[in-house]
């Protein structure tokens, strides 16, 4: 299952964007959004300083 962003916790720091090896995380309206190309690697989870990302 792909990564899921809890929008209420996302601060828009873009740490996850840089951590994504397939560049599928983008920013929309100041919040991170995971695209369809997510490979379930979990790199973004560890990169998020506010624990806004989970693997579902």
List keywords for this structure.
about 55 residues; alpha+beta; two-stranded antiparallel ribbon; 4 strands
Short description:
This protein is α+β, with helices and mostly antiparallel strands and 56 residues long. It is 18% helix and 25% strand. The longest helix has 5 residues, at 15-19.
Give the helices and strands as they follow along the chain. Answer: EHEEHE
Question: Order of strands across the widest beta sheet?
Answer: 1-4
Beta-strand content bin: 25-35%
As a whole number of angstroms, the C-alpha radius of gyration is 10 Å
Unreliable stretches (pLDDT < 50, length at least 5) are none
Count up the helices.
Answer: 2
CATH topology: Alpha-Beta Plaits
What is the CATH architecture annotation? 2-Layer Sandwich
Strand pairing plus helix content: what structural class?
Answer: alpha+beta
How does the major sheet shape up?
Answer: 2 strands, antiparallel
Mean pLDDT: 97
CATH class: Alpha Beta
Explain what the structure shows.
The protein is an alpha+beta fold and 56 residues long. It has a single domain, classed as Alpha-Beta Plaits, CATH 3.30.70. Helices cover 18% and strands 25% of the residues. It contains two helices and four strands; from the N terminus they run E-H-E-E-H-E. It has a two-stranded antiparallel sheet with strand order 1-4. A two-stranded antiparallel ribbon has the order 2-3. It is globular and about 25 Å long. The protein starts with a strand and ends with a strand. The model has no long low-confidence stretch (mean pLDDT 97).
């Amino acid at each position: 299952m792909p990564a899921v962003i809890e929008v209420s916790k996302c601060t828009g720091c873009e740490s996850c964007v840089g951590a994504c090896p397939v560049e599928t995380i983008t920013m929309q309206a100041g919040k991170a959004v995971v695209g369809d190309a997510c490979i379930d690697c979990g790199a973004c989870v560890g990169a998020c300083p506010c624990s806004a990302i989970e693997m579902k």
